[in-house]
């Protein structure tokens, strides 16, 4: 039943409750067999336990505990009925009692108790009497099966499915007041009339507990042996149990931290309050250290809204590659460090590469915005030239400003001179698109010049494709390897040469 971290903000220490472990039974073969003989004969007795039954549990009897012999009046089967009532079964006339239906809640922890008091039986649910009856024929022999938890004595099987916690067997008939006043209390030292007491504080809730196969008897030496349990995972294992009280506070530590505090067990605390960490457990109660934590918020010194192209680096050297909110911590001598917040927008980088074919200059970045400029006129923008390419017959030096978001770059200047233009003036009559291309390229004939064929040459000068009589001006380049190629457009007046990229 132990758990390492607990938070309380308004409870007194005398009311401190902790979430401890329990045992989960799978309803198939899980059982705890103890060495406790049990209260025998017709002597007064009291059974208590906390139980958790899921709404998906089978609609059949679920045995909490039992001992004795499978004979009339000789066993002590304390169970939940299939209709979710509570029962005590010893067999035969004046040996069985039960409650009404649907009194035991499901999907939550419930305390159940049975009392035999001078031949009369009483059943309690959450400290309230729910049933009574004549049990004058109950007479448990000193032979038979010792106390077992999760199944009845031999002669039948009514396996328990769900979790059981805080099993107690007394050799007195406890009153309703006594049951209600201590059902939420874990006894640090067992009273003399408490003869068997199983807190189920062993193991790690939901962990791997294959070596933890003993349930300690905290009232004596009649420990229980676990049988059939998987002892790993959230079922058929040690699990989180019922919140009970009290515990022992070992030490109290006042803590002042900035923003957060990491407990000794590794838990990060981000809200001020009182927290508890388990020191250890034994046959008595768990011992806790108390941490009273005060959190001073980190100070936001400044908020910087900025942008970067591909990356952004803060003044303290933090490189940011994705848009978002980031922080730099500036160490100070005060209680808390100072934090600078950066709200950064990072844009993708641009490609400022260009290539020229005759009097045409193309930008390689087909997804950016473009503005062509004259380098020889102090980089003055050319009105209307915002396409990915520019075609000109005027001599001069040209460049393009490429931008995407906050990323802006300018290409190298490319010289256009009259000689190169006159040699390649035919190039201005055609366009090739898409460029780059994956499957097909289309030649746009701007002046309706008669085309006689097409030739594609790779960068080594090798002819890789030669076509004639291509009336639709579309060329399939799917079979070409990725790379740069030169397309010759053959016409009746000459040959135009254009560069394109296959990808």
Helix vs. strand class: mainly beta
Instruction: Note poorly predicted spans.
Output: 1-19, 418-423
Q: What is the domain tally?
A: 5
Class of the largest domain, according to the CATH hierarchy? Answer: Mainly Beta
Measured distance between first and last alpha carbons: 65 Å
Average predicted local confidence, pLDDT: 85
Share of residues in strands: over 45%
Taking all Cα atoms into account, the compactness measure Rg is 43 Å
Strands, total number: 42
Largest sheet: 8 strands, antiparallel
Helix content: under 10%
Number of helices: 2
What's the architecture of the largest domain in CATH terms? Sandwich
**Shape, per Cα inertia axes:** elongated
Q: What is the CATH topology descriptor of the largest domain?
A: Jelly Rolls
Which structural traits does this protein have?
Jelly Rolls; 503 residues; eight-stranded antiparallel beta sheet
